[in-house]
């Protein structure tokens, strides 16, 4: 059972005892009055006494036991307490022993009154209790015990007000604690419902992620085939054509054939690694800046175009997907330069910033109209493949070019460190 359940159960038991206590106290006082008989205390006749007892019992039954819902109506409760206080005074007038019943008025004041009225009600009950302690109204008037009565009254009122104040504070604290427990239980229920809903959403996301993964893998393989096989075959064709043109120069012809063979071997290795979804071959041997430098140097040597790599910022290990995307972007951009730009110089800039990594590839070639570039069988798939690859890792790709003014390709990707994978 939770703390809130135990608290509510304990409160219900206490409420039941509170309902029975006035009846028990009234019955016990009446028994004392009947059993003790005439012991010198001022008293009224039994018919009058029994009539007051019957009236008090009826008042308790009607106002509390038979109508428990009236406890939520403040004005009705004030009426109930004032009537009970008057009946307590009548009972004490009938016999001082009803002072044992009078103390239940403190319980009624705490249950029926609010705020400072609760203290005033406790003071009224204390007056009746003080009268019973000096022998009743008749003894007070006959013996003129005004000074002792004043002392007893002050003591009773002081104790009653102090105890009522402390019990009120404790009750307020208990109410606030119960409210906090209820709010906590509601929050736990909402959390449990949210967790259940999240579990359902997670199941849906798994299905969607599986479907998206299939599509993403198809796109990845398309990009890998384009980046690896298309570039490799283009380089092989270029070298073989150069070898044919160098038929009279055996040294140049051999060099072009050797280069074509090496490109074929590298392309085959890359194709196998792409199928296995491993990192690109240069990244398997070195970090991204070194791998890019290797790619740039090899491309420059094959095509006879001056190319340089500039790295800015502190290089740091990133997720493999980030490094692979930037390397593939550089390879595709250089392949486009070789096929279309007729450039004399290419500059690559790899910049490590705080939250992102950027790769800029600029050439001084012929340029083109970016708006007219479309994917197709004629080789226009390059920009589309680069953009899709970068977007898969939440990056962006920008292309700036115009005919006769060169081309600038800029890829910006999040700088996710290797530690983020954990």
UniProtKB/TrEMBL annotation:
The keyword Transcription regulation appears for this protein: no
Alphabetical keyword list: 4Fe-4S, Coiled coil, Cytoplasm, Iron, Iron-sulfur, Kinase, Membrane, Metal-binding, Transferase, Transmembrane, Transmembrane helix, Two-component regulatory system
GO cellular component, one term: membrane
InterPro entries: HATPase_C_sf, HATPase_dom, His_kinase_dom, Sensor_HK_TwoCompSys, Sig_transdc_His_kin-like_C, Sig_transdc_His_kin_sub3_dim/P, Sig_transdc_His_kinase_ChrS
Obligatory cofactor(s): [4Fe-4S] cluster
Catalytic activity reported: ATP + protein L-histidine = ADP + protein N-phospho-L-histidine
Domain annotation Histidine kinase: ranges: 326-417
Residue stretches spanning the membrane: 20-41, 47-66, 78-98, 145-167
Subcellular location, record wording: Cytoplasm
Keyword Acyltransferase listed: no
GO MF: 4 iron, 4 sulfur cluster binding; metal ion binding; phosphorelay sensor kinase activity; protein dimerization activity
UniProt signal peptide: none
The EC number(s) this enzyme carries: 2.7.13.3
Organism superkingdom: Bacteria
Alphabetical list of SUPFAM superfamilies matching this protein: ATPase domain of HSP90 chaperone/DNA topoisomerase II/histidine kinase
Coiled coil (residue ranges): 170-204
PANTHER family for the chain: NITRATE/NITRITE SENSOR PROTEIN NARX-RELATED (PTHR24421), SENSORY TRANSDUCTION HISTIDINE KINASE (PTHR24421:SF62)
Function: Member of the two-component regulatory system NreB/NreC involved in the control of dissimilatory nitrate/nitrite reduction in response to oxygen. NreB functions as a direct oxygen sensor histidine kinase which is autophosphorylated, in the absence of oxygen, probably at the conserved histidine residue, and transfers its phosphate group probably to a conserved aspartate residue of NreC. NreB/NreC activates the expression of the nitrate (narGHJI) and nitrite (nir) reductase operons, as well as the putative nitrate transporter gene narT.
Protein name, entry field: Oxygen sensor histidine kinase NreB
Source organism: Actinoplanes nipponensis
Source taxonomy: Bacteria, Bacillati, Actinomycetota, Actinomycetes, Micromonosporales
